From TrEMBL:
This is S-adenosyl methyltransferase. The lineage of its organism: Bacteria, Bacillati, Actinomycetota, Actinomycetes, Pseudonocardiales. It comes from the Bacteria. It comes from Kibdelosporangium banguiense.
Length: 292
């Protein structure tokens, strides 16, 4: 049985053309005095769904490195290219997007449904503000669904009635873990968490994952990685830079898609690089892999 705290906000009902709600529990209130991962990311992307406390995290990051917002933009652009690949060449027609964050330009369902309009997307997040925006997504798109849940509880999430209703686990799907696992602490065993998700996926499914990189001892970029990591830990409570080998372990049992685990800007870019990479752009990596 799913944890009672992990429940659906809304689900599309087929009986009429309008979406109706399933049972809605009382959700946590948005706390404007504490920064939120989703709202901080929104601030980095230039969004409007954030508070002063979130913008302070942003300001601290750019005090460390004025180029810090480039990492968020690179992650968004990587997501766009990955979804296009998955629906096009990968033939994927259903998505589970964990830690989806606040809606911004080019969300997973917009990218996917531009290629194939009938693709269902289930978004998952545990931020109350993201949950509120989930209602709006449901209202505008019958193939888009939202679950208020914690990705660190994969058994409950995967058994959630909204997930099992709208995703067919007998057919390939895409699991999106974009800029999420670096917020799972080492003591929470991120490798085991990913193993649970991967084991639940049917053959032919894909996993897309991006993560902050620890470039290793001796790298000229390690000091910057440590500073940015410390800023995240001190503000939003989590943020782990991990080595290439550690991040690659999250894909265990899968077949990496070329070019493998690389800087997100180097994962099938849309065109040639026109200027040198900033240091922070070297600290964000991503990859896509297929389950045999």
């Amino acid at each position: 049985m799913p944890d009672t705290k992990v429940v659906a906000l809304l689900a599309a009902e087929p009986e009429t053309s309008t979406m109706s709600a399933v049972e809605e529990p009382e959700l946590p209130q948005v706390d404007p005095t504490r920064p939120s991962i989703a709202r901080v990311y929104d601030a980095f992307l230039g969004g409007k769904d954030n508070y002063e406390v979130d913008r302070e995290v942003y300001r601290q990051a750019i005090a460390i490195d004025p180029d810090a917002p480039l990492a968020a933009r690179d992650l968004r652009n990587w997501l766009i290219r990955v979804v296009r690949f998955l629906v096009g060449e990968g033939g994927i027609d259903q998505f589970l997007d964990c830690g989806s964050g606040l809606p911004t330009a080019e969300n997973v369902h917009q990218i996917a449904q531009r290629i194939r309009p009938d693709v269902p997307v289930v978004y998952v997040d545990n931020d109350p503000m993201v949950a509120a925006h989930g209602r709006a997504l449901l209202a505008e798109n019958p193939q888009t669904h939202f679950v208020f849940a914690d990705l660190r509880q994969p058994e409950e999430l995967l058994a959630h009635p909204v997930v099992t209703k709208h995703l067919d686990f007998s057919r390939p799907m895409a699991l999106m873990q974009c800029a999420t696992i670096h917020h799972v602490l080492d003591e929470e065993n991120p490798a085991e968490l990913m193993r649970t998700y991967i084991d639940a996926l049917p053959s032919g499914s894909y996993v897309a994952l991006s993560h902050f990189l620890d470039p290793g001892e001796g790298s000229e970029y390690q000091a910057l990685a440590r500073q940015l990591e410390e800023n995240l830990r001190n503000t939003v409570g989590s943020g782990e830079c991990r080595t290439h080998e550690e991040i690659l372990s999250f894909f265990d049992g899968l077949e990496m898609v070329t070019p493998g685990l690389v800087k997100v800007v180097d994962w099938w870019p849309d065109g040639p690089r026109l200027k040198p990479l900033a240091a922070v752009q070297r600290l964000v990596v991503g990859g896509v892999a297929r389950k045999p």
